[in-house]
Amino acid sequence: MVTHTRKTVSFKLIVLRLLALELTPTTYNIKLNFILVAENMTSTLLLEQIFNGLQAGITLFLIAAGLTLILGIMDFVFLAHGSQVMIGAYAAAAITIATNNFYFGILAAIPITFVCGYLLEWLIIRHLYGRDHMDQVLATFGLILFFNEAIRIGFGPAALFTNFPSSLSGFIEILPDTPYPVYRILIILVGLLCALGIHLFVSRTRVGAMVRAGASNPEMTAALGINVKILFRFIFAAGATFAGLAGMMIGPLTSVEPGMGEPLLILSLVVIIIGGIGSVRGAFIAAILIGLVDTVGRVMLPMLFKTFMSVSTADTAGPALASMSVYILMAVVLVFKPTGLFPPKGA
Amino acid sequence: MKNNVLELRSLRKKFGALKATDDVSLEVEKGKIHALIGPNGAGKTTLISQIFGNLKPDSGDIFLDGKSITNTSVADRALLGIGRSFQISNVLMDFSVLENAIVAKISHSQETFRFFRPAFSDPSLIEGGFAILKRVGMEQMADRKVSDLAHGERRLLELALALAMEPLLVLLDEPMAGAGPEDTIFMTKVIAGLRGQTTILLIEHDMDVVFQLAERISVLVEGAVIASGTPDEISQNRLVREAYLGSDQ
Amino acid sequence: MVLDLFKKFTTLWIILIVLAFFPIFTSTFDLPFWNDVVMRIMLLGMAAMGLNIVFGFGGMVSFGHAAFMGVGAYCAGISQYYGLDNGWYQLLMSAVSCGILGILIGFLALRTSGIYFIMITLAFAQMLYFFFVSLEEFGGDDGLIMDRSDFIFFDLYEPLRLYYLIFFILATVSIMLMLLIRSRFGVILQAIKSNESRVEAMGLNPLKFKLTGYVISAIICGLSGCLFASWQEFVSPDIMHWTRSGDLMIIIILGGLTYLAGPLVGAIVFLLLEELLPDLLHVLFPPISENWMIIFGPLLIAVVLFGKGGLMGVMGSKLKTAANREKT
């Protein structure tokens, strides 16, 4: 239903003013389409998409934060980070289904993901530090295969569906007349809280200072005698936990299935490249940016395309271009700032 | 107009607040062995890197045999006639000694985009490779894998590769670094033997070697050249003695 | 010269000879199914050999090469869609498109190195993937069904014609690579992998050589993809998913990174395991017979941790004669 709020009307006026009113048949049709699109693109829909974008961005941040530190400090290309997301999602889903309690599922899954990350670093990852990237890529690709297959064995290839608890399935009005799912708001809030926590930890604590030192100068950090091994293990496990948390939270929103982590991994890699490898702040900003571009783009671009293409073409070209836009953005950033938007100082 | 193979004019390079190269002007005469000395951290390697092309100066000009090379790439400078031996051995580890020389010869021959004939069994390349090794007396080690070489032998190969393209100017960045006394004597002899055949800019810490080889010495302290002259002039220069040699020289 | 090539690349020659005579074996024992498997081995092996020019011999970790296979496959599919059934023409189209694409992508990506290079190749692969998904006209996500192309002298529906066409192209590519790897160009490419700054110091511009290698590898992958489309009689964006590039890398590593025959050996091992392991597991350990893939993960990790010689490396260390040193 199209609601004519004040915002929509003024948008229409702007559109009309921007397009000179030449009334030739084709241009008139195009402009008419454009106006119709503009009308449909109410502030409600736009706001909703923006919030979805924020939620997607925050989720990406939780995943990218660990990844940027792992790559920046340990110089380790950890492709299996997506698997950490999957492990978190499955752990929470399994416990939720078993105990019929969503909150318990999440609370129990957090330490499980931490332990998984810890064990993974201890058993396998630490043997690969200092190896060239090719080795790390191959080994972590092997881990992806292993985890995906292991999940298939344990839970079957079909997706697990979980629902959020009734206490969280409502809507709240973020603005008058703009209902938005409580659950997604919660994700945004939890994510922001985590971001704040990470920020405070990295900038205010001693361990955080070591992390920052490690990000801008790994060799020096080791030379200063800081127990680099334990530091690395901790960073790795923490990164895994946040990734797992992301997985746990988006579980009910998407399908929990083998291989769910890989698309998020790719996006996270784009995030950290744009943000600057090793920079948590960069990861945050880039993640929000990409979340918005990807989400809002997916909706807006088909609408935009519909003004001059057939509906069916627009419906596929739109999302396709939206997916590509993220990479185009990365390419543009790399041309102007090869080390990303906010590289850690000294890098 | 003096016959200068290398001329540096007002070269400047800063890393943040650090003046690594502070308005350096230098002339290296053809056929001479010119040494660049200075305390650790003076910016010698930085200067060499700018001459070689690894590093771009913030301002200033570099002339090779009268031609400006300030904006030329590393590879092109090598083709124009600059050879370099690196401070840390920079050779092709997965290849044999002769194969290293052959790769240099391939480049020298300018026939690089060949896709059919095997390179390592090409007689002209093998001959050229051996010639390169002979210059430093390494022909016997031709078939040894570089990864099996001793440190001093690698430094020798490093030197051979620097000379491989018959360069106008050879940049030797601490060729004796880490070499034992025997290897040092041997390499000093080899370098001395090049006198007149090519022009050498030598960075070296070992003062005995420097005074044995150099016909001209420039002293770099904190990025700036504080003195340039013959070995005698330098050893008696008060500024140099204070800053570097110590008053007991 | 030919004898020399045989001595240097013994394993590869032996495999090629076996492949040439394999159909005789299968027809004698009436096992035509295995021809199909071997065709897939040849196609995958060829693509992997193409990738290995830049991966094993050039030291570049490129996730984009499955995309070249995909482009080659779509050249076949799309041509046929518009009535251009001639297989030779499709092969030419694949080579040209992948060549051009290779130049474009390589030119942009090869200016970077390390993780940035990986990401850029990955990004291009994703872009191509999403691009083809968006082509509703050609099936989009669901793909495009097609017939085997018309190769004029070879009616691909006659038994074994496709087999020998693939074999012919594989053999040609193999011989070309045997020459290439020992040529001046090949030597320089390997030197760049060994120590890029030294090669630069010798007066060679690494970018030119890496780019050339990249384009050649792209074209080979494209040819493989084009034939793959005919073999499968189906084209879809799945062929070019970035994880397919990972599969190619697994194949290369299993067989041996620095050996010319490595990728082909790896393809043989990979696909034989795919065929035989499920049945084996069914007998030994029924619950996970469907999940034989789980072996590959740890296998890959083990190969990486304990030496990248792969199967060829293991074999090579057992044979001491110099004639079996296949690495130039």
Structural features, described:
The complex is a heterotrimer of chains A (347), B (249) and C (328). Chain A is mainly α. Chain A has a single domain, classed as ABC transporter involved in vitamin B12 uptake, BtuC (Orthogonal Bundle), CATH 1.10.3470. Chain A contains 13 helices and two strands; from the N terminus they run ααααααββααααααα. Chain A has helices at residues 6-18, 25-40, 43-74, 81-99, 102-123, 133-155, 182-204, 206-216, 218-223, 228-250, 261-275, 280-306, 311-336, and strands at residues 171-175, 178-181. Chain A has a two-stranded antiparallel ribbon. In chain A, a hairpin with a 2-residue loop joins strand 1 (171-175) and strand 2 (178-181). In chain A, helix 1 (6-18) packs antiparallel against helix 2 and helix 11 (261-275) crosses helix 12. The longest helix of chain A has 32 residues, at 43-74. Chain B has helices at residues 44-52, 74-80, 97-109, 123-135, 151-163, 181-193, 207-213, 231-236, 238-245; strands spanning 4-15, 18-29, 33-37, 59-64, 67-68, 82-85, 169-173, 199-203, 216-221, 224-229. Chain B is built from nine helices and ten strands. The longest helix of chain B is centred in the middle third of the chain and has 13 residues, at 97-109. With 249 residues, chain B is α/β, with parallel strands linked by helices. Chain B has one domain (4-245): Rossmann fold (3-Layer(aba) Sandwich). Chain C is mostly helical. Chain C has one domain: ABC transporter involved in vitamin B12 uptake, BtuC (Orthogonal Bundle), CATH 1.10.3470. Chain C is built from 14 helices and two strands, in the order H-H-H-H-H-H-E-H-H-H-H-E-H-H-H-H. Chain C has a two-stranded antiparallel ribbon. In chain C, helix 3 packs across helix 11 and helix 8 crosses helix 10 (206-232). Residues 320-324 of chain C have low confidence and may be disordered. Chains in contact: A-C, B-C. The A-C interface holds A 71, 77, 124, 127-128, 131, 133-135, 137-139, 141-147, 149-150, 152-153, 262, 266, 269-270, 273, 277, 312-313, 316-317, 319-321, 323-324, 327-328, 330-331, 334, 338 and C 55, 59, 61, 108, 112, 114-116, 118-120, 122-124, 126-127, 130-131, 133-136, 140, 242-243, 246, 249-250, 253, 287-288, 290-291, 293-294, 296-301, 303-305, 308.
